[in-house]
Amino acid sequence: MPTASARDVLAARITAQQLDRESGTVADTAVLDLGVQDTGPDGGLWALAIRGVVPEPGELTTVWTLRGAPHLYRRADLPAVATATAPFSEADAAKRIFDAARPLKAADVPVLTALDTIAGRMREIVTAPMVKGETSRRLSDALMTDGGPEPYNRFCVPCDAVHVWEQPFRLAALRAGLELQPGTSPPVLQPVPGFAPAETVPGRLDVVRAYLHLLGPATPQHVAGYLDAPVTEVTAHWPEDAVEVTVEGQRRWLLAEDAGRLGAAAPPVTRLLGPFDLFLQGRDRETIADPARRKELWPVLGRPGAVLAGGAIAGVWRPRKAGSSLTVAVEPWQPFSPAVRAAVQEQAERLAAFRGVRLKAVDVA
Q: Which residues pair with 161 in a beta bridge?
């Protein structure tokens, strides 16, 4: 059985996720197969920018999918994405909506039926761009007429109002054929013309395969944690061509076609990863950062970005915007070499240009 170190794994992921390239296209960008989380100002489009991609208008779509988070996908892939990211089963659907499953179970309403019911109402309500709050209000009212405030709605104490449960709302939106208008806050939902989920899913969009390709080697538990799915469901959908590898004494798997990447030297690149970049989304956090650094990299609130240098996470960074200028505050985990300092400066300038502001300074602690 092949063996690999954590550094080998990270080096392979840099290549798999194309963080070592300077230019590319939407069509050939691998992370779009799994979806690029679009959270915060340095979200999905920045993740693509550091992989050398500047999408053309209309090439991408933003939808709520995995974990109810907004993700970017190729617009042409959307029908297959809807099928690929849907729950595998009733048990999977119940796990993905968390506490919202309890009132449905008490009312003897299957979760998949509930998602279809919510999606049907959303489809009727959102016939033109509509802000999320208005959509939620109308949806709550519509579902109240379908049998009282439960099992679809809950009373929100801070708002002193009745709302649809959040996760079913988000997971039903794509079932309803709704996407998010890019860059809107609060989110604006709008119909996708002619939308219908695909009957089949190409292998590259299979979420288990895509995770193993982009974040492998991994275990079924890692994939399940990323999807919010039961481990048994992930195991049932495990690729037949997954091969076993030992990483730091732990059994893991990756796709056979990717096995040749393990053991290759890490590409000599420096990148300022956004807080929710896919490179930081692996559920094997022990591989990505030492225990002493994990709370710093993944705090409960206010995640920083991460400095990728030397084939590993070498520190964290935070943006400080004042008017039309930007300061990038960097906290190295080890002293930076002159070459890495220069590369961080260059990446900070790239970030400022991406944001359309002037770089004031790079403060390295």
A: 156
